[in-house]
Amino acid sequence: MPAAPVRSGRIRVAPAARALARAALAARPVGLQDVPAGARLLDRYARCYLVPARTFLEVAADLTAPDRDGPFRALSVGGRRWFRYRSVYYDTPGLRAYHDHRRGLPQRCKIRERLYQDTGERQFEIKVKGSRGQTVTHRRRLADGAPALDEVSRGFLARTLSGAYGPDFEVPRDLTPCFTTEYTRATFVAEGGRITADSDIVCRDAAGGEVRAVRDLVLVETKSHGHHPTPADLLLHQRGHRAADFTKYAALAALNRSLPAHRWHHALRETFPATV
């Protein structure tokens, strides 16, 4: 994929990235230490939407308006309101985690290392499904230079999966890095709700293949404690958008067309149209 064109000494900023910045700067900020407890949502229900930058700006302006009852605020850390993320996903040689998600199995997991590129903080994360079908995230902080899959992390993985699915659940052992994603994220929070907005999504596989999302596309994820639609969901529905069956993990199928991905085909075609 060619680099972004340079004109007059400036790199062209993608429309989606500009939208994230505008929305975050227009909202009232909130520091990490002041995020409401009800907005942390490590145990949550989530819906994904693939929307044009303009639509995202309209929805964000409504949700963050000062005169709104319980307006969303933009997460701010060290004066920054949007952040660069890098996630490395681990899977077996046969891509067990990928296929478990593709099949929608109730007992499945995602295993990844997340790097917050602006601060250097690293987390080892495991996502599992709860008893009510919600997503539950477990994480441990990684020390500088420590391998993501050291003995401590493997023990943490085994305990987490056994605790979630019982002692008979087969914990994946032969794990290797299979997939990397990078993107820019802005986060908006209110009591009981959280919205993340991602732009500049780049996905790479272990063989060096790469796909980039449409430059005007914002991946919006609404997160809450219950199944009911959130205010953000309702605003998106009013503009003709419905939740997409999508996960960044699905981009493996855009990188490797031999992988089955029927349930994600429409979302992949919308996100990575040149490759699907």
General description of the model:
With 276 residues, this protein is α+β, with helices and mostly antiparallel strands. The chain has one domain (6-271): Beta Barrel (Hypothetical Protein Pfu-838710-001), CATH 2.40.320. The protein is built from 7 helices and 13 strands. The protein has helices at residues 15-26, 53-64, 96-103, 151-165, 231-238, 251-255, 265-271; strands spanning 6-7, 10-11, 29-31, 43-52, 73-76, 83-91, 109-116, 121-129, 135-142, 176-190, 193-205, 210-212, 217-224. The strands form 2 sheets. Strands 4-9-8-7-6-10-11-13 form an 8-stranded antiparallel β-barrel, surrounded by 6 helices. Strand 7 and strand 8 form a beta hairpin. Helix 1 packs parallel to helix 2 and helix 2 (53-64) packs across helix 5. The longest helix is centred in the middle third of the chain and has 15 residues, at 151-165. The chain is globular and about 50 Å long. Mean pLDDT is 91; it is low at 1-9. It holds the Pfam family VTC. This is VTC domain-containing protein.
Q: Quick gist of this model?
A:
The protein has 276 residues and is of the alpha+beta class.
- The secondary structure category is alpha+beta
State the distance separating the first and last CA atoms. Answer: 15 Å
Shape designation: globular
Strand content: 25-35%
CATH class category: Mainly Beta
Question: Low-confidence parts lasting 5 or more residues at pLDDT below 50?
Answer: 1-9
Task: Give the secondary structure arrangement, pairings included.
Blueprint: E1 6-7, E2 10-11, H1 15-26, E3 29-31, E4 43-52, H2 53-64, E5 73-76, E6 83-91, H3 96-103, E7 109-116, E8 121-129, E9 135-142, H4 151-165, E10 176-190, E11 193-205, E12 210-212, E13 217-224, H5 231-238, H6 251-255, H7 265-271
Parallel strand pairs: 3-5
Antiparallel strand pairs: 1-2, 4-9, 4-13, 5-10, 6-7, 6-10, 7-8, 8-9, 10-11, 11-12, 11-13
